[in-house]
Each structure stands twice: as C-alpha cells, then as structure tokens.
C-alpha cells in the first residue's frame, strides 16, 4: 500500500519510525530489539536509512597504501524486506543519489518493486568523508529533484534506454526531506524552499522534516511552504535529546539551533541519565503541541534507542 493514501485517509495523527542499519558484523536482531517494544503502538510506516560507503586507507607491509571502499552499515534492502514481512508494516527504504548511476538506481527501484516495497524516500545524500562537497556519480543525479523525477517516470512505465512499449508501471509513493532551519548548503531559506518546491513539482508525495527542537521553527516552515504552493503533507521529525554529547554533535552535524531553554536544562544535569530524562520530557511537550495542531504524522528517529521513543509515545498517544 502507498503510505500517502494512509496519511491522507487518516483523521488522526499517525506514528512513524526511522531505523538505522546495524554496524557491519552485527545481527539483524539488533533491529528487532529496537522495533519489538515499539510495534504495539502500530506505526504506519518505518523508514530504513541507507548509508554510503567510506573510503578507508589500508597500509601494507611494503609501505603502499590501498584505498578501499567499505560500507560500515550495509543491509538496508535486506532489512527493509525483513521488517516489512516480519511485522506486516509498510517500510520506506531510503534511496540516494550519491554513489549510484541512473541505471543502478533504476535497477534498485525495480528490485524494490518486485519485493513489494512501494514506498521510497529520495535523498541526494551527503558527501563522502574527505570530499569538500557532494560529488555525484558521473552518470547519476546531482540532486534529489532528478531522482524523484526518475521514480515518477518508472511509475509511468518510462525506463532508461528503452522505448515505451507498454512497460510495467511501478507504484511508488515518494517522500523527500525538508529543513525547517534550511539545508546547510543553501545560501538562504528562500533558495532552500525553491529547491523543495522543485522536488514537490517533480512528484514528491510528502515531506519529512529534519529534526528540530523548537516547534515554532516547524510551524513557520509549514507556513512558508504553503505560501509558495506546497500543499503535500509535511511530517515533523523528532529526535529525543539523549546525552551531553548532543549539545555539540547535533548542531555540528545537522546544522540546527538548540533552544536556550533546553540548553539551560541540560546544563543543570549531572549525569547522562538526567539529560535523557530532560530530553524525553522536552520531546513529549513538543509532540503534544504538534498533535494538538493536527500534524498528519509524528516521525521518530529512533537512533536504536527504543526506550526514549516508547516513553514519549506512551504520554502522547
């Protein structure tokens, strides 16, 4: 089933989750341990992130250096299928521009369709470590706009290098990312919104936002989207604040601003356990306000920490 239909047909705020593949060498049981305690709350869909390879330098005894590509978190496709059929829930695998040619993207989408994965989340992806900026595959997409369009073309039976002779039409619904505090590479919010509108015009069905800790930023973002003709659902993304390290890491990695009130509360804590409690209570307050405002879905970035999300859901839903 296409989750956009589920979203549009619902009269209440739904729950969705996002999971990260385990590190290479770890078991799928890690994923089940994250999801098992959360499935009683009947999430409408579960996103599975996709992680690009990293270039690792291997020093050999003869002094030579070998550059080897290594994926630290492989298995996104297998996880997507396993989760879908274990829990009978719609799963949304992430699909990236980075590292893929258009032909490889088409093959992956065909595989998803054959596997019954009819929902995807289209992202450009980040630059590889060591690259100063994102570098697309020589015959790939340089942004998510073209990726969304390619997915839409498949939905219309338009395949690469193939004349239209009644080819199979896929049935993907497509999610894209939105940034209430703008994407880090955008010059300003107006340009960022222009790019988002282009993704919507290319065929995106819904938007999931980057995490934020001030609901006003989300509400302002929605209002600005509506003012330029973006009418599709805009789903807020919530990542519970969990430890002292988040004070530094979250603004640095995700280019977001932490409310001073939250920072002050965290600085009063003496242990990470206390910080975790503050983070859960802050997220509960966020979610209660968002739910009261009638948001279509609240999307939780689990980060393999189900207890936090479970404690929030209990209080909000």
- State the secondary-structure class: alpha/beta
Which percent range fits the helix content?
40-55%
Radius of gyration: 20 Å
Give me the CATH fold name: TIM Barrel
How many domains? The number is 1
Descriptive terms for the model:
317 residues, alpha/beta, TIM Barrel, eight-stranded parallel beta barrel, two-stranded antiparallel ribbon, 40% helix, 18% strand
In short:
The chain is 40% helix and 18% strand. It has 317 residues and is an alpha/beta fold. An eight-stranded parallel beta barrel has the order 1-2-5-6-7-8-9-10, surrounded by five helices. Strands 3-4 form a two-stranded antiparallel ribbon.
Give structural notes.
The protein has helices spanning 3-9, 29-35, 76-87, 102-114, 144-155, 189-202, 215-227, 246-254, 260-267, 272-292, 306-316; strands at 14-19, 45-48, 54-59, 65-70, 90-96, 119-123, 173-178, 206-211, 234-238, 297-301. The protein has 317 residues and is of the alpha/beta class. It has a single domain (14-316), classed as TIM Barrel, CATH 3.20.20. Strands 1-2-5-6-7-8-9-10 form an eight-stranded parallel beta barrel, surrounded by five helices. 36% of the residues are buried. The mean pLDDT is 92.
Layout of SSEs?
Blueprint: H1 3-9, E1 14-19, H2 29-35, E2 45-48, E3 54-59, E4 65-70, H3 76-87, E5 90-96, H4 102-114, E6 119-123, H5 144-155, E7 173-178, H6 189-202, E8 206-211, H7 215-227, E9 234-238, H8 246-254, H9 260-267, H10 272-292, E10 297-301, H11 306-316
Parallel strand pairs: 1-2, 1-10, 2-5, 5-6, 6-7, 7-8, 8-9, 9-10
Antiparallel strand pairs: 3-4
């Amino acid at each position: 089933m296409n989750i956009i239909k589920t979203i549009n047909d619902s009269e209440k705020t739904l729950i969705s989750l996002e999971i990260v593949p385990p590190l290479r060498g770890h078991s799928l049981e890690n994923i089940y341990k994250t999801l098992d305690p959360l499935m009683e709350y009947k999430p409408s869909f579960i996103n599975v992130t996709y992680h690009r390879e990293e270039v690792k330098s291997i020093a050999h005894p003869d002094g030579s250096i070998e550059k080897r590509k290594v994926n630290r978190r492989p298995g996104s496709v297998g996880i997507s299928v396993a989760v879908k059929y274990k829990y009978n829930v719609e799963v949304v695998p992430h699909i990236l521009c980075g590292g893929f040619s258009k032909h490889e993207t088409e093959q992956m989408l065909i595989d998803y369709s054959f596997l019954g994965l009819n929902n995807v989340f289209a992202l450009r992806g980040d630059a590889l470590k060591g690259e100063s900026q994102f570098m697309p595959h020589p015959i790939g997409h340089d942004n998510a706009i073209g990726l969304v369009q390619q997915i839409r073309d498949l939905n219309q039976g338009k395949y690469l290098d193939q004349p239209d002779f009644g080819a199979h039409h896929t049935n993907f619904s497509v999610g894209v990312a939105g940034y209430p505090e703008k994407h880090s590479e955008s010059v300003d919010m107006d340009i960022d919104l222009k790019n988002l509108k282009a993704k919507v015009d290319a065929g995106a069905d819904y938007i999931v936002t980057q995490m934020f800790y001030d609901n006003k930023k989300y509400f302002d973002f929605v209002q600005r989207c509506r003012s330029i003709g973006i009418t599709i659902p805009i789903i807020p993304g919530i990542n519970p604040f969990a430890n002292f390290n988040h004070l530094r890491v979250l603004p640095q990695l995700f280019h977001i601003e932490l409310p001073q009130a939250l920072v002050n509360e965290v600085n009063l804590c003496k242990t990470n356990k206390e910080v975790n409690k503050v983070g859960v209570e802050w997220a509960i307050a966020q979610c209660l306000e968002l739910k009261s405002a009638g948001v279509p879905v609240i999307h939780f970035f689990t980060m393999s920490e189900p207890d936090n999300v479970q404690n929030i859901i209990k209080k909000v839903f």
